[in-house]
Amino acid sequence: MQKRAFVLIFICLLLAGCGKRPDETPHRRTVFAMDTVMNLTVYGENGDKALDAAEQDLRRLDALLARGAETSAVHTLNQYGFAEDEETAALLEKAGEISAATGGAFDATLGKVLDLWGFGSGAGDYRVPPDAELDAALAAVGMERVFVDGEEIRLAAFTEVDLGGIVKGYACERMFDRMKENGVVTAVFDLGGDVALWGGKSDGPWRVAIKDPADEGAFLGILETDGGRFIMTSGVYERYFEENGARYHHILDPKTGRPADSDLVSATVVCQNGIWADALATACCVVGADGALALRERLADTMPFDLILITDDARALYTCEGFAPETNNGYAYEKVA
Ligand code: ADP
Ligand code: MG
Predict the structure, then answer these.
(1) Is position 4 within any domain?
(2) Which residues have beta carbons under 5 A from ligand 2 (an ion)?
(3) pLDDT per position as a tens digit, 8-35
(4) Residues 311 and 186 in one domain
(5) Average pLDDT for residues 280-300, to the nearest whole number?
(6) What whole-number distance in Å separates Cα of residue 236 and Cα of residue 268?
C-alpha cells in the first residue's frame, strides 16, 4: 500500500514537472544527407526555426566531412595529407580516443581499404581485392598515423581518413545544440534507423521500436528510455555485395582489412554521447558479442552505454532495463547484466 502511494506521488511529480507545453504541434522535415534519408521531428513553437538550423547543419557537415565531396576538409586531407579545420581536427582527436578505447576495432583511417572493396567514396564498384593490394593499403591504417595540432591535421604518407562510422552521431550532437539554442524542449531525429532523442515528453518516457535486422517491417522490441539518448545501430546487412556465393559487407576489421567476421549481425548502442554511440556500434560488430559486452564493462565508468546485440544464430542479447522484447519472432532473448 505504502509502495503504491509512493509510485502515485512520483507520477504526479513527473507530470507537474513536465507540464503541458503551450504548443506541441510536431514540425516535421525529411532531409537527404550523408547518404541517408533523415526524418526530423521537432515539437513546439520554435519548431520550424530549429528545423531550419538543424537542416543547415546537416548540409554543412555533409559538405565538410564527406570523403567524396571535393569541397570537404576530409577530401583535402586525403588528397594532400594536410588540412586545416577546427571541427574536423576535433572529430579526429575524438576518433583517436575511441580507437584506443576499442583496442583499434574502430579506426577512422580505413579510407584506402574501403575504396579497394568499393565501399569508399565512389561506392558501387564492388570487388574482392587481391591480398597484395590489401596488405599495401593496410600498412597505411592506424590512428597513430593522424597528427592533430590545434586546427592543423597531418596524415602519414598514403593514409586516408574515412569518418563514415561516426558522422551521423556527430551530426545528431550538433543538431542537439541547435535545439538548445532555439529553446526546443522535445525533438526526435531518425537518421535511417539511428535515433536521437532530445529532451522529454509530457506524456511519459520515450518508446522506441528497435528494428529487426532480418525483417524490414518487424521489430525486436520496444525500448523505453529518457531523452538525451542516442540509439545507434550498425549492421552487417546494411551494405554488402556477393561474389562466388560469399557475402562481403561494409564493416571492416582494421586488423585484417576484410569484412568483420564476428558472430554479430547487428549491434545497437544506447548512450548519452552521439559520437561514441555511433562509433561503438561499428566497433561492436567488429569485436563480436563477447567483445562488445567486455567493452561495455571496461567503459562503465567513463562512457556508460547499453547494448542490444543480434548474433548470427538468432540470439538477442540486451543490457537495457527498459527493453521489452517482442515475442514469437524466432529470436532467443537473453537479458545480460
Ligand atoms: P551506417 O553508416 O551504415 O549506419 P556504421 O555507423 O556502422 O553504419 O558505419 C559504417 C561505415 O563506417 C562504413 O561505411 C565505413 O565508412 C566506416 N567503417 C567501416 N568499418 C569501420 C571500422 N572498423 N572503424 C571505423 N569506421 C569503419
Ligand atoms: Mg557507427
Answers:
(1) no
(2) 165, 234, 278, 281-282
(3) 222 222 222 333 344 578 999 999 999 9
(4) yes
(5) 98
(6) 12
Q: Give yes or no: residues 94 and 207 share one domain.
A: no
CB contact at 8 A, 230 and 261: no
The set of protein residues with a Cβ atom below 6 angstroms from ligand 1 is: 106-108, 110, 114, 119, 162, 164-165, 234, 238, 250-252, 254, 278, 281-282, 286
90 exposure class (CB count in 10 Å sphere: 0-12, 13-18, 19+)? middle
Q: Which residue range forms the structural domain that includes residue 119?
A: 68-155
pLDDT tens across 116-153, in order? Answer: 999 986 657 899 999 999 999 999 999 999 999 999 99
CATH of the domain at 98: 1.10.3980.10
CA of residue 64 relative to chain centroid, distance = 18
pTM of the model: 0.92
Q: Is residue 184 domain-shared with residue 314, that is, in the same domain? A: yes
Does one domain contain both 46 and 84? Answer: no
For residue 84, the number of C-alpha atoms closer than 13 Å in the C-beta half-sphere is 0
Q: Specify whether 85 is located in the same domain as 122.
A: yes
Pocket test for ligand 1, best of 74, 194, 268, 282 (most atoms within 8 A of CB): 282
Closest ligand to the CA of 191 = 1
Q: What is the Å distance from ligand 1's center to 164 Cα?
A: 5
Atom 1 of ligand 1, nearest CA residue? 234
